[in-house]
Amino acid sequence: MNHVELAIIGAGPAGLSAAIEAASVGVQTIVFDENQQAGGQLFKQIHKFFGSRAHQAGARGIDIGKNLLGQVAASGAEIKLDTVVWGIFEGNKVGVVTNGRNVICKADRILLATGASENVLAFPGWTLPGVMGAGAIQTMVNVHRVLPGKRVLMIGSGNVGLIVSYQLLQAGAEVVALVEAMDRIGGYAVHASKIKRAGTPILIRHTIKEAVGNGKVEQATIVQLNDNGNVIEGTERTLDVDVICMACGLSPLAELAWLAGCRFTDVAPLGGLLPVHDDNMQTSLPGMYVAGDIAGIEEASTAIEEGRLAGIAIAESLGYLTTTDATVKKQAVNDRSEQLRDGPFGITRREAKETLIRRSLET
Amino acid sequence: MDKHPRTYEGKTEIKIEHPDMIICRCEEVTLAQIIEAISEGARTVDEVKRRTRAGMGLCQGRTCSRLVRHLLAQHTGQNFHQIPPMTARVPVRPIALEVLASLEDDTNG
């Protein structure tokens, strides 16, 4: 493991897709992931995905994950799980702890596909047991089949908040209310309608004021906000809940890119400060690539396409694909990505991506 | 020239409704301690970290770093999105010193 042609950090949808594209044309590929299972967040996604048939619309995340793992196995790429990448050094070297051994692995190309971490909201009582992130709840409910509580307050109306609310309802919890500080619902109307039909009120221009309880969450006070986002005094309501779920968005997990010295730029619609990348997903550092949420917070389906693009570009740069073949493959990926970044939700992301790529050309 | 003046006039004006609220869970750093660091001149996440230990615990700032950036933006007028996270250093994940010290590097041979 001292040398590898392609080291991929992160075995989520982006990393696995890149591995499939690169290894299937002959690139010697290793995927590192600190978890005990590959697939990133896909195996928590028991709902059906949207998009066109080309994007496996109608398939559940868990099945998309299984499908990717099957393709990785066929491609010849190696996945090393329970493996921590703790550093990145000059000369495209990564520090890796695997099977209790700490080794330096030199890679001709590196793909950072480390994903994102959840944002939190600080309010009085937010450190009480019972306040948790939507990701933790998905792991408990959808993977381990443990219901974290009976009465839930959901914070955030993006797709994660809406979907996790529905999954909690399906699992037998009551979602007492969903609060959203913005003046509109953040996620898709079809997800919002499902939980409204099930009786959960979606309260826009509302937020949590505090959580109280003796050693654990017992009550939450919610409050209405005015159009400037300030609390309207006297609108407080107290709800009996035992779980408060925070679904307040994601931030790119980019420490390795900072450490490597990638150039960053601020693209707010994609999650803030991001490593710039070109139309091959290559960062400002030659040989270092990014894909998925680290390159801008989007969805699993866009992460898959970005991973493919990076895998194709890397294979081309190493001489495993001719420019002609690579161009055809990249065009197919870009056409699918364009479909994903369409409509009222997609267009902002598409423009933001274009900005990110344009800035990679600036010096 | 420093883009953001070090003098801080707003100390008494900051409305700290819940001074005891924890911002960094790992190191149990409160809102009041963060605000105090800012009032003493901290203008970056690193500067807040060095004064308070916020972000130095097990999660290495993955939870509180963004909250600290919000507080910096709120109290110093900086653009939230342009405030960088704390400086990344190896090891970026918690690994035992024993393991770190057993490094095998055969890539130079």
Kindly summarize this structure in a few lines:
The complex is a heterodimer of chains A (363) and B (109). Chain A has helices at 13-23, 61-75, 134-143, 159-170, 189-197, 255-260, 300-317, 323-340, 343-361; strands spanning 3-9, 29-32, 78-80, 84-89, 93-98, 101-112, 116-118, 131-133, 151-155, 174-180, 202-204, 206-212, 219-224, 237-240, 243-246, 250-252, 264-267, 272-275, 288-290. With 363 residues, chain A is of the alpha/beta class.
What does this structure look like?
The complex is a heterodimer of chains A (363) and B (109). In chain A, strand 5 and strand 6 (101-112) form a beta hairpin. By secondary structure, chain A is α/β, with parallel strands linked by helices. Chain A is built from 9 helices and 19 strands. Chain A has helices at residues 13-23, 61-75, 134-143, 159-170, 189-197, 255-260, 300-317, 323-340, 343-361; strands spanning 3-9, 29-32, 78-80, 84-89, 93-98, 101-112, 116-118, 131-133, 151-155, 174-180, 202-204, 206-212, 219-224, 237-240, 243-246, 250-252, 264-267, 272-275, 288-290. Chain B is mainly alpha-helical. Chain B has one domain (10-101): Arc Repressor Mutant, subunit A, CATH 1.10.10. In chain B, helix 1 crosses helix 2 (45-52). Chains A and B meet through strand 4, strand 5, strand 6 and helix 6 of A and loops of B.
